[in-house]
TrEMBL record:
It is an enzyme of class 2 (transferase). Transmembrane segments: none annotated. This is Carboxy-S-adenosyl-L-methionine synthase. Homodimer. The gene is cmoA. Belongs to the class I-like SAM-binding methyltransferase superfamily. Cx-SAM synthase family. It comes from Congregibacter brevis. It comes from the Bacteria.
Length: 293
């Protein structure tokens, strides 16, 4: 099968075809050089451009000590590959968030995707929402994420409006919501801010509204906790990460991604004003909870 990557040979091919028409005249060296240069340029734009989803090798350099994890342009350029190979069950959670949106999104309401990154959840929900005057509000405080998310959304048509905001979810207004999604975002919010945020989400949700909360979690039992961490690392190894990359990422996200237990999440949801909550999906130390207003 031909991919876009094959077409960077186009300048060389065109040159060869043109020469077939005039075989008597050999191509001057400067023309051959120009064709070669154009091919290299095309290869750069087709295969090396940051617009192409690339493989995550951010933690593969043994000479570079990883700093604290940040959602910058380096992470954005590898993010789809990174999250798919790092979060067990990610694809299922994204797909089921869409299914839930099809059931819970209400006419004349907003559906929030908090920490939307490149819009995977937003796109999944837009494919399933089929009610009038419903807007998906995607919020992320990483300028690089929001810029790329805007480009990706423009490539995917859909009838439900999307309002993308570059903003801190702790300072964004959340109102008139039929559904709110926090897919792997609360874990990056400072512990002392989580209660207030969940309280505001519960206030913003209409009766019968739903929160989807997906997180990396810890377990109260030490042996089970360690087993789940080891299984997560097995998952990463099975997806091609080396022990060096796994250790580098672990150091980089320490004190940046702060996981809590399922019990802590459910207790806080109840205190924030949700009438019920339970886990609907779990794979190792990654769980997703639904909470009803
Ligand atoms: N205070 C904040 N305000 C706004 N955004 C924030 C904040 N803190 C972190 N973020 C943003 O939350 C996102 C977390 S990634 C979510 C994946 C997505 N939900 C997905 O389903 O693909 C999860 C991960 O990378 O593990 C990043 O884009 C941050 O910039
Ligand atoms: O990679 C990990 O260990 C994770 O916990 C998931 C993750 C995915 C993407 C960015 C940061 C953390």
């Amino acid at each position: 099968m031909h991919t876009a990557d094959d077409w960077y040979f186009a300048p060389l091919l065109i040159g060869a075809l043109l020469r077939l028409r005039r075989p008597a005249e050999p191509a001057p060296p400067e023309i051959l050089f120009a064709e070669f240069f154009l091919a290299l340029l095309a290869k750069h734009y087709v295969t090396d451009s940051p617009k192409q989803p690339s493989a995550d090798t951010l933690f593969s350099d043994p000479l570079r000590a990883p700093g604290p994890f940040r959602f910058d342009s380096d992470v954005v350029s590898v993010f789809p590959d990174m999250i798919r190979r790092s979060v067990p069950g990610y694809e299922t959670v994204i797909a089921m968030s869409g299914l839930l949106a099809g059931r819970f999104a209400k006419p004349n309401s907003s559906v929030y995707d908090l920490g939307c990154s490149l819009g995977a959840t937003t796109l999944s929900m837009r494919r399933h929402i089929d009610v009038p005057n419903c807007t998906i509000v995607g919020i992320d405080n990483s300028p690089a994420m929001i810029a790329r998310c805007r480009e990706l959304l423009a490539l995917d048509a859909g009838s439900t409006a999307v309002d993308l905001r570059e903003s801190d979810i702790l300072e964004s207004e959340i109102a008139n919501a039929s559904m709110v999604v926090l897919n792997y975002t609360l874990q990056f919010v400072p512990l002392e801010e989580r209660r207030e945020l969940l309280h505001r989400i519960a206030e913003a949700l209409m009766p019968g509204g739903i929160l989807v909360l997906s997180e990396k979690v810890v377990f109260p039992d030490d042996s089970l906790n360690q087993l789940n961490i080891d299984l997560h690392h097995d998952f990463k190894r099975a997806h091609g990460y080396s022990d060096l990359e796994i250790a580098g990422k672990r150091d980089s996200i320490e004190n940046v991604l702060i996981p809590e237990s399922i019990e802590q999440h459910r207790l806080r949801l109840s205190e924030a004003g949700f009438s019920s909550s339970d886990v609907w999906f779990q794979c190792f130390n990654f769980a997703s909870i639904i909470a009803l207003k």
